[in-house]
Amino acid sequence: MVVFLGISAAIKFEMTKFGNPTISWGNYRFIKKLTRRMKTWWECTARKSSGCRCVAVTVDNQPKFGLSQRGNLIVQIGDWRFNKHACWGSKVRWTCIKKKYGCTAAITTVDNVIVKTLGKHNH
């Protein structure tokens, strides 16, 4: 949850139907523009149509949703990877890929937004 200028909204990292990454925050939407080292710059989608010059900058720890080599859903946050563990509608629990080695770290997402983190990595 991010609060800026009195607006409180969750940030959603999503993909367009063409597979391009986007960020949604409240009524605002940003497309990936540039990545240098650990920072990524995002441009407002209204830039071309209405001249909006709003930008967002994220630093490396954005969640990246994707597929494992075997085709299973995963979330990557920095150096940590999580496998899909259980699903209840739009609510999904993800556990660390090292769970079988005793790692208790897990996250919960609702509509691709991280709403809860549990445990700590032991590796």
UniProtKB/TrEMBL annotation:
<feature type="domain" description="FLYWCH-type">
    <location>
        <begin position="68"/>
        <end position="123"/>
    </location>
</feature>
<dbReference type="InterPro" id="IPR007588">
    <property type="entry name" value="Znf_FLYWCH"/>
</dbReference>
<keyword id="KW-0863">Zinc-finger</keyword>
<dbReference type="Pfam" id="PF04500">
    <property type="entry name" value="FLYWCH"/>
</dbReference>
<feature type="domain" description="FLYWCH-type">
    <location>
        <begin position="15"/>
        <end position="63"/>
    </location>
</feature>
<protein>
    <recommendedName>
        <fullName>FLYWCH-type domain-containing protein</fullName>
    </recommendedName>
</protein>
<keyword id="KW-0862">Zinc</keyword>
<keyword id="KW-0479">Metal-binding</keyword>
<dbReference type="GO" id="GO:0008270">
    <property type="term" value="F:zinc ion binding"/>
</dbReference>
